[in-house]
Protein 1
Amino acid sequence: MHAQTMKMETQELSFEKETTFGVSWQKLMMWIFIVGDALLFAGLLAGYGFVRLASPSWPNQSEVFHLELIGVMTFVLISSSATMAAAVGAAQQGKRSQATKFILFTIIGGLIFMGMQAYEWSSLIGEGASLTANPWGVPLFGAAFFAITGFHGSHVLSGLIILAIVAIRNSSGRSTAAGVELAGLYWHFVDLVWVFVFTLFYLI
């Protein structure tokens, strides 16, 4: 049993060793995932832009969305990025309880965002919008909106699950500062993607 534990610890340490790029294998793989996911989001948003430019009767944002609600959603998500940065800083200083506290604040922010997005979705669906219908004009609007915001929402949900696991592990002393940092990288990426979604759907 002791030998097996030593073997697992050795494998974990080797996994955290730096690559030739000066970062750990864990961080390198996270960056590879983020770049790949960013390209996927870029493709979706570019497709949305093309469809929108090709559709002269695209609905006006102020007629469709509750922009005040969207503004609050965006503020909450960006604020959660700040609390995540604070969690990473605390973890790097060895302040586990403080790091866990900021991770929990981040989770609360993410849950508020998801709740507000669920409310927005239910409001639009109640007005007749769906993947195949749009009471304000071009049917493709509904498909593009629900597909892209839903895809982003699935990333927020994944991030919340990751953060919950990291918070539990960190509070029990089983998570490292590197683990908190990796979770932070993913969460910052999700927040950054929302800035682009927010800009293209609600502002332009």
Note: The chain has a mean pLDDT of 88.
Protein 2
Amino acid sequence: MKDIDALVEFSVELADLSRSIIRSHSILDVNYEIKDDGSPVTPVDREIEKSLRDRIDARYPDHGILGEEFPSRATNAERVWVIDPIDGTKQYATGIPVYGTLIGLAEEGQFVLGVMDFPATGDRWIGGRDYPTCWNSRPVTASQCIDLCGATVAPGDPNRGSAEENFGSSKLADAGSFRVYGAGSYGFAMVASGKLDIAIDFGLDPFDFAAPVAIVEGAGGSATDWCGRPLTLESQGRTLFLGNPALLGTVVELLQS
């Protein structure tokens, strides 16, 4: 992308805005309500998403927006911003510091740039197709693990998936060296950083995986569904993040068996 530097600069601006909003609220004063789909939402989620949407509309009025808390707009545009204002709202609402803002950019349905910002820990990843992934301005590279039995695996939440999804996730975790539960989107960032070899999940929406896809791929890893197909704006549900793309065939075969 010819304008990658401007898009990166703007993405950082959005992440800075989100971080400032989160840090302006005391964690002890945050309340939440339960949405119709059974998931929690806080006033801070909505404040962040509205602020980011306003900033995007002002800078790029021809871009579409897909967010978690408000109706989508112009998702058939060439470029679409994909926003999860607080990924890990349950953790945020209960004071557990593994939550963050995910900001992705899709171009013709493909995720080309992402920012994952975790204000409680001060960690930020940014990367994508034409921008090698960095953590806090330091370049990172995904794992080169080629042996599944030696892989570290972050499986999905066993309390959330279907019997089939839990079986597949557990089967992959059993095939690895050891498993790490509860990583959430932070686990995707750890795949990009070479600390985890595999992260598998299910029940996700594009705003959950848009930014991680770009960041993992920008670090040399792969991001697909459970059938090995690229994740796009049209994808739903099952995600597979690998540090080493050479593992994809083995992992997909295991999941399909």
Note: Residues 4-139 form a domain with the Fructose-1,6-Bisphosphatase; Chain A, domain 1 fold (CATH 3.30.540.10).
Protein 3
Amino acid sequence: MDLITEFIGFLGFSLVAVASITAVMNPASTVAVYTALTDGMGKAERMQVITTTMKIAFIVLAFFALTGQLIFTIFNITVPAFQIAGGILLISVATGMLASRGEAYSGADLENIAVVPLAFPLSCGPGTITTVILLASGPEGIWGIIAVFLGIIVALAVSYVGMLYGPKIFSLIGESGLRVVPKLMAIIVLAIAIQFIINGVSAAMPQLLTHLDLTGIV
């Protein structure tokens, strides 16, 4: 009876983990940005970007699922600080997208795109990492960690399928549309970046005001 109860609890927590991680990761945003950034690439190059993105995102999320709470504690890193850092990275990516003219991509370019922004901060950004850490730090123990890994795998699988077939869907809008989409996506990425920073600053504001009050500045 205890085993059945534990299994039912595991299934329930697994559903929560899958839904939470997938929702926070937001694969649709990753697919849209991937489609814009890989415009003009061949099939092999796109596949290389997808594979590298998936590997990096899984390694990072798995690492934080196992040691995230410890790392944040040791280095005294806060979630708002992570959000601000991710926003700054995305601003750099967005400006690069706006300046892009569809040049040929080198191997280094493919690696760079896969790492920033597709792996971080889109696939494993501050929100996703925080969600993974919080879920893995719960009272469920080893079963909770297994459920978190299941959630990570499902969320990344959704992103994988989306990136694999996303360009085909976007190609239906035609060549002229494809010229416009990357620029529109750049604006969206820029908006996401600014929102990351706003969220981080808003969350850090009480702590900052408290610090200023203690130092007598305010």
Note: The CA atoms of residues 201 and 208 lie 9 Å apart.
Protein 4
Amino acid sequence: LETVFLSRDFYSQASVGTHIKGPVELAVSTYRKLGLNEAPGVPDFNRATGALGQTLFRPPTVAGWAGGRSWITPGLLLERGNFARDLLFPDINFIPPDRRNGSREIQSVARRIRDGLDITTATQPSNIGEDQIMAESNMLADRDEDFNTRYGSFRGWQMAIEKVKPIPRHTARLDFSGDVLQQELTSTTEVVDYFIERFMRVAPGADARRMLVKFLNEELGTSNIEEAQTYMEDALRMMVHLLLSQPEYQLS
């Protein structure tokens, strides 16, 4: 690896920008470029990379993931932009997936037991209301086949919540305004160029660059950073979201 990383060919124009980042690589490299020392818990790492087509330790086949251009479709490119948005503008309604079970049946059992119902009633199918009566034949079949499954799943999740250490959760600590002021940037053009150099291995085209400058000017109401330094954080984050949504950001 040392020989590869010290090779001039590794950093040549013929090599740069020829690799499409996989979902996990995209997420981790974004964290690093944002200056984060650890992965934030919001958005959830596994849920975010899974939406992009890659869940660690769960490849689609024994051969792993196809990679390359298979990572990019119109829908997945949109999801990659959504990942950047969720990182820059965290969802205030976020519920940790490791703390809440999404199964309707388990939720139904938990709710009924909490309401004081007996185990037999609590473990009836979730589509059976408390005042509804199952046919005797169905009741016997349900008792034989699903009672232990429903109650066992409920108890499993209950014990997991009690004993399993939760994943640390926090949002990304970002201060783009502070970065811009520390760099002593004076215009929106300089700001856009700074973030392009910071985040992009392959710079976007001239049209995209002009679009980013125009967008930032409109959001700030000025091209003078000194005039906007007290309120520019959200505008900077929106501009960076647009930048990280560009096709060129998917390359390394």
Note: The chain has 13 helices and no strands.
